[in-house]
């Protein structure tokens, strides 16, 4: 470990940071400490979980793992069962075996002595991390021996370190409500003190996002910091987001991305005497985890072979890692140097010596004067914008973008629209390589709605509260201009909803098919009821890229010219961007500058919406999967370059609800649509989903007042406190 000395902050400062510091700034401060301590090294373990039983005499209110004795899925692992499972694990090159579970009289000190001895014999060199302070205190009490004797006996059988579980929240006001039958805070701390005195390192958790208040979190961290000052035996602090299932403790939502980032960053900033901060992928979306590794977190836990506790808590399996290689690739994708270690950060066979690893590369500083100029109100030119996009810390871009957001859309409101996406047809003759949605005319998957079906679906959406309909579809030669005129006029004449529909690509295709000009086509669609255009089909407005990803599709200038025509006849539009096709930073900036230049002329763009390319199920390889940090960087630079486009929309469809929420701290002022249905992105396998209540909760938890808007950003209603519990 290097000789970095971290500044100590007071409890009052900690509370102020947690409550008031802008999220991007808090992330940047914590990331600076993490880099001073570990550079870009990020730790992970290859672990197998052995949960001896899900029966438990303690029956905590917040636990979704324990089962009553008569439950079909209740189980106890005999030593023979354990032998069979350990045999299977012998070829898995594990670094860790985690043994944690329920407490029952049958599983006494003798059982655990034999279990650890068996594991040590069958998995030599694997760290046996086990049990929580709650289990150790219970087993010692059950055996009528001291915690010290209990630890000494287990240690003699191979027990290597205590996992940090069971800490929950120490403050009695909270603990008496969430862990009524669990040991008291001081008893938990005493078990760890004893372990430290015996040379057994431990970790410490903090369960947040249930009924605790900010002060309870700071109090919890303060007690950990005080014990660490005394013993120095803790290795990692592990903030654990509570997995809400609407039942336990009546908590409706798992802590949102913004809250998780703020708590993790504060943990790093406050615990100046803890070497590591760990967050576990089991409990969150991978895109969020990636952002957390740039917000103070230097350890992402481990693979989840046979992990049952988070699973019981409802943690989706899709986000777990099951192979060390997967974790390595994930970390490299986030610019980190992956370090496979064990839960006491020991040297693992076949891995480079961590201490000998060269320091991370020197970071550029030429971005700073550029960002200072922007912060002072200057307009960014393409060259400077490219340097910021490539070299500036994304947290710093976010900090200034959040200030620019307040200039463009002042105030505490953050908006969303209640809309529906509707695709008329998936038949398309353009074969874009990045598209997983389209079908060839002869394909069994092909479908086309009749105008009557379109109107019926829109009617039902309006009945459910949709105020905007976004109709788009493939370029289907069988659908002529009159088909769309029937759809639009049918909606206009029968449904009270705003028609924000059709992409420039579809309109260009229709005009060509009809043999008429773009403008005439736009005028006919407007006369049929079209009220505004979504900015679909823009991808990257650089033809070198377009020729590669969609050779048959609208060229950049044609897309811009069509939008100019639309603006000229009073049709407002949005503008989009899909990035991650291997374009350069300069080409991304070229896209933004082209939109800015058109906006300078027409003022017709109401909003800008960037999202990342999802390569799954498409014909296009992805040079590098875009992650949550890439997205927040893109949102921030968009806000800084597009100084004449008022609204910036976050994109939960591709980035997930949590990272989209963080975009509200990086310059976005809008959370996008509730959407009801979406087929194009979900065709790639991404299946994020939110409902209106979740959108309102996300905006509120980001510190903004949720407001439902129209397509033109007029406010329909502001959700005051009455919505909090809806
Ligand atoms: S992106 Fe649009 S134009 Fe391209 S293939 Fe898909 S549906 Fe057709």
Short description:
The chain is α/β, with parallel strands linked by helices.
The count of DSSP E runs of length 2 or more, i.e. the number of strands, is 21
Helix content: 40-55%
Strand order of the largest sheet: 2-3-4-5
**Ions, cofactors, ligands: which are bound?**
iron/sulfur cluster
Major beta sheet summary: 4 strands, parallel
Instruction: Please give the oligomerization state of what you see.
Output: single chain
Structural class: alpha/beta
List unreliable stretches of 5+ residues: none
Going by CATH, the homologous superfamily of the largest domain would be: Aldolase class I
CATH architecture of the largest domain: Alpha-Beta Barrel
Evaluate the radius of gyration: 28 Å
Count of the domains: 2
Q: How much strand?
A: 5-15%
Mean pLDDT: 93
If helices are DSSP runs of H or I spanning 4 or more residues, what is the number of helices? 26
CA-based shape = elongated
Distance between the termini: 49 Å
**CATH top level of the largest domain?**
Alpha Beta
In the CATH hierarchy, the third-tier topology of the largest domain is known as TIM Barrel
Describe the protein's topology:
Layout: H1 11-20, H2 23-38, E1 41-45, E2 47-50, H3 79-89, E3 96-99, H4 109-122, E4 127-130, H5 133-143, H6 147-155, E5 159-162, H7 172-178, H8 185-197, E6 202-208, H9 214-231, E7 234-241, H10 257-270, E8 276-277, H11 286-292, E9 299-302, H12 309-312, H13 324-333, E10 337-340, H14 367-375, H15 382-391, H16 394-408, E11 413-417, E12 419-423, H17 451-463, E13 468-472, H18 481-494, E14 498-499, H19 504-514, H20 518-528, E15 532-533, H21 543-549, H22 556-568, E16 572-579, H23 585-602, E17 605-612, H24 628-641, E18 647-648, H25 652-663, E19 670-673, H26 692-701, E20 705-709, E21 715-718
Parallel strand pairs: 1-9, 1-10, 2-3, 3-4, 4-5, 6-7, 7-8, 11-19, 11-20, 12-13, 13-14, 15-16, 16-17, 17-18
Antiparallel strand pairs: 20-21
The structure holds iron/sulfur cluster (SF4).
Residues 428, 430-432, 435, 437-438, 474-475, 505, 550, 553 line the site of iron/sulfur cluster.
